Amino acid sequence: QVQLQESGPGLVKPSQTLSLTCTVSGGSISSGSYYWSWIRQPAGKGLEWIGRIYTSGSTNYNPSLKSRVTISVDTSKNQFSLKLSSVTAADTAVYYCARADSGEDAFDIWGQGTMVTVSS
Amino acid sequence: SSELTQDPAVSVALGQTVRITCQGDSLRSYYASWYQQKPGQAPVLVIYGKNNRPSGIPDRFSGSSSGNTASLTITGAQAEDEADYYCNSRDSSGNHQFGGGTKLTVL
Questions:
Q1: Would the CB atoms of A49 and B98 count as touching at under 8 Å?
Q2: Distance (Å) from the C-alpha of residue B39 to the closest C-alpha of chain A?
Q3: How would you write the pLDDT of chain A (120 residues) with one tens digit per residue?
Q4: Is A63 left (phi over 0), alpha (psi -120 to 50) or beta?
Q5: Please, which residues have CB within 8 angstroms of residue A67's CB and are 6 or more apart in sequence?
């Protein structure tokens, strides 16, 4: 079955760019009708959708983060990635990658999450 | 962007029925999906679409929708159902939003 795994630095300095990668295993990122999302959760708080990408490269971003977010996909590596620029302490959170069926718009598979701390 | 509103906390006696609600304008056009999250774990999809359960989700979980309100009902709540529950839907632009979450306590 398909599994997702986030990877990237756990510590990022303020004003720098946070970069994470989600590796898809157990299936091709290009198969089926899915899109791939990033979602984050600050400690003790709720979930926040960051954005999504289709394997065609089409993207949607959370309007509140749009100016700082870039999501890309590398189908040859079965990966998709997140870049969040100009980070501050408010971007400290657990970051999840997730898959959604494009017909149901529901996140059926999630990665385990990776903690990213923004601190000097 | 549209918002989804959930009650912060709900409690239910063991074996009783509880309904968790989610309100938002996007729900008039799009179904909500519901996620269960236990401490230290990733969220798990429990309900999607009109009223669909992924494989492995007990049939005591059900969903419904009316107007701008979506509901998750747990019929015969169990101790292991104690968790945070989040609703989610998309809007006409393809953007998603989550509700603030509801902490369910099973007494």
A1: yes
A2: 10
A3: 999 999 999 999 999 999 999 999 999 999 889 999 999 999 999 999 999 999 999 999 999 999 999 999 999 999 999 999 999 999 999 999 999 999 999 999 999 999 999 999
A4: alpha
A5: none
